[in-house]
Write a structure and sequence with these properties.
The chain is α/β, with parallel strands linked by helices. It contains eight helices and seven strands, in the order βαβαβαβαβαβαβαα. InterPro entries: DNA_Partitioning_ATPase, P-loop_NTPase, VirC1.
Length: about 230
């Protein structure tokens, strides 16, 4: 079953939010999903524990994962559930290397900032090293997070630079939405939020579904190319 790894060597880029949003969309579509929290800060495990009564039955959150347990956790989950999503610590360490080695797709979240782009390049280099080590192509995509309607010159320059370097970009971004922050404050999923909770939750749901569709299409394309 597909293993999707969220990796960045920089914090604050929306890694955990992206992982949780994807997991919620897949589970809402009836696909049992395991969400592995390998971040020492345990943002996803904390969310699941704090709001345990509102976690979907088919969304399984595993916390306390480290370099010694990450491979077994991924392999066991992949044998049981249609989707496995792994959220990593914001650093290039052994846990990240092990997780990437098991990935069908690595997502590299970043904002439209040059510092984020520089760090994304480090992740790409790590993925390419793992690809050589395991003699298989590991698919990856940059995914822009916390995106707004304003397209700055900096963002245009970064996109152009990534394209020139042949670094693929996911054709959907995770936008800046109040609902995505509210998940961690109010609990439950974005599908539970109402207009009284946040402004325009439907817009966030539509964006989340768009992102998930882009991810599943990428996985299908990669599978077809490998066949």
């Amino acid at each position: 079953m597909p293993v999707i790894v969220l990796c960045s060597t920089k914090g604050g880029v929306g890694k955990s939010t992206t992982a949780l949003v994807l997991a919620q969309v897949f589970s809402a579509a009836g696909k049992a999903t395991t969400l592995i929290d390998a971040d020492p800060n345990q943002p996803l495990a904390t969310w699941a524990k704090r709001f345990s009564g509102n976690v979907p039955e088919n969304l399984h959150v595993q916390g306390g994962i480290n370099e010694e347990t990450i491979v077994d956790a991924i392999d066991t989950a992949a044998a049981q559930h249609p989707f496995v999503i792994v959220d990593l610590e914001g650093s290039a360490n052994l846990t990240a290397s092990y997780a990437i080695s098991r990935a069908d797709l690595v997502l590299i979240p970043m904002r439209g900032k040059q510092l984020d782009a520089d760090q994304a390049g480090r992740v790409v280099a790590l993925i390419e090293r793992e690809s050589k080590a395991f003699r298989r192509r590991i698919e990856y995509r940059v995914v822009f997070s916390m995106a707004t309607a304003l397209v700055t010159k900096e963002l245009k320059h970064i996109r152009a630079t990534l394209e020139q370097k042949g670094i693929p970009i996911l054709p959907a971004a995770l936008k800046e939405k109040a609902a995505f922050s509210a998940m961690f404050q109010i609990g439950g999923t974005i599908f539970d939020l109402t207009d009284e909770d946040v402004s325009n939750p439907k817009s966030a749901i539509d964006n989340a579904k768009e992102l998930a569709l882009a991810v599943t299409n990428t996985l299908k394309e990669a599978e077809a190319a490998a066949a």
